[in-house]
Amino acid sequence: MLQFFDVTRDAPWFPQVKALYESAFPANERIPIKHLLDDKIKREFWAFFDKEEGASGSVEDAATPTFCGFSNSITHGSITNIVYFAVPPELRSRGYGSKILQAIRRQHPDTRIVVDIEVEEDSKDAEELERRNRRREFYTRNGFDASPVDYVWQGEHYRLLSAGGTVTEKEFRDFWKEILKDIPEAKYP
What domains does the chain contain, in order, with CATH numbers? Predict the structure, then answer.
């Protein structure tokens, strides 16, 4: 059974979340983790655990729940933007990513959920293109569709995908404008 808990600096799982955050996202795609923890922006920063399967991969070891990923999202109005989302490499392709997305959807049944992916056309080599295609296919299998929104942030070209309805470029820009209205130094789309 998948459970999630708030990530705070004092949480016992904070080191696992921080390590996954730093390994899953290149430096140019990360903001300092302290900003994911501060309360200037109301974020949902969750660590996910599988209580049925223990750290060894067996049900017998279920006393130690398996850390199976994290999400960091922001909800405003009718949009929930999953800003960061990762599953440890050794647990990928085991359904955890889909379960995490389902948990987020259950928490926000009346919002359009958006994620961004790096644009495949900008891939520098075949390995990177394959990774980007797998990421897009994962979101497509989980009910996300391409939206008309592309943008550049921190030197990377992104495409927005949405579930639960399309998000226009104006809605996306207005979302971030409202979120960041009191934080002039923030760098977001």
Answer: 2-179 (3.40.630.30)
